[in-house]
Amino acid sequence: MRFDSVKELKGEVFRRLTGIQRNTFEAMAAVLSDAKCKQKAAGGKPNTLSVENQLLMVLEYWREYRTYFHIGQAYGISESAAYRNIKWCENTLAKSKSFRLPGGKAVAASDRAFDVVLIDATETPIERPKKTTALLFGQEEAAHAKNAACCREINAPHSMHCARKRTTARLQAVQEVKGSSAS
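The structure corresponding to this sequence follows.
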């Protein structure tokens, strides 16, 4: 769905489709267009989508939770381009601080009574430590070598002692057999 087909929609129909009112949409588009002008000054490849289409794409992603592939197909761009556009819009809108919700302390200090509280439970990426295979295998081999060396040191006298006992027991058994056969 392109912005050309959406811009004629009026009030409540526009809000039902996008999830926000038209004046909020226009304010978001203004923030994004200011950021786009700064980005153009820095250079680089221009985006094929207008700011309004990029914002509409973000709103579709938020509201319908469509995949980047499906959004990209609807706008005629690749999946990775859809991802880049959505992330750029999200980061730009978050940096503007114009569209943030008040914090917990501000809400608690407010005299306003809330009937409904909605909690955003979107997925967020988790930072995990990067481990290389060389590091993993090096640590495992070092631990194995250390444990094996300890076992050899600890078990060496014990196993030698057991071997001596067995040898002594065999010698006694052989001597007893020879002694009984000689008599």
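The helical segments are 3-6, 11-18, 22-42, 51-64, 68-75, 79-96, 104-109, 133-182.
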